[in-house]
Design goal:
Shape: globular
Strand content: 35-45%
Distance between the termini: 38 Å
Strand order of the largest sheet: 1-2-3-4
Helix content: under 10%
Radius of gyration: 16 Å
Structural class: mainly beta
Largest sheet: 4 strands, antiparallel
Order of helices and strands: EEEEEEEEEEEEEEE
Number of strands: 15
Number of helices: 0
Length: 191
Amino acid sequence: PTSRVQSAGTSNATAAYFIAGEPGPVSDAVKITYASDTSDGTPSARFHIPINAVGALAGKDHSYLFGGFPSGSTYANKLTFANDTTVNSPSSYLEGARYNVQTGTAGGANGYMFAGGTAGYSITQRIAFANDTRSNLPSSSNLKSYNENAPYGNILPYWGAGRMQCSTHCYYAGGNPGGGNWTSTCQKLTF
């Protein structure tokens, strides 16, 4: 297999998928089947264009791949697990161009996208798994753009930030808004 960085990773109960990435960018897709610990190229699961730094959000039956780089994008692709097929999904496109999009899901009807590269981007968006429709949440759900490291106090950290989730909420912590200044902020998004 070819070495890749900045690929989107997503999974279901039987397999994991790694899609797009660098060097390139590329649109390739690799599927790892858990039962056999084998991997293979899966052309039908490729992103619709060569891209990297894509965010991924897994539901029960399908996954979404959002944004990406170069130049940030609003793209959304939908990967259906039953047939390993990825298609462009215009009704799911992000509101604004982003890369390194963070995601969370309560495992139910909706998934959430937040943060991501393009300085100061804090709008939290929701996607309905049933109909692939994306919407913005009220501003009270947006991540706050604060950082203890001047001069980046008004920029939401996105490089190297981490997230953890459970069935009711998600935490988003740390990261770098640019310029080598890391933050220790932690925020909570209640689903």
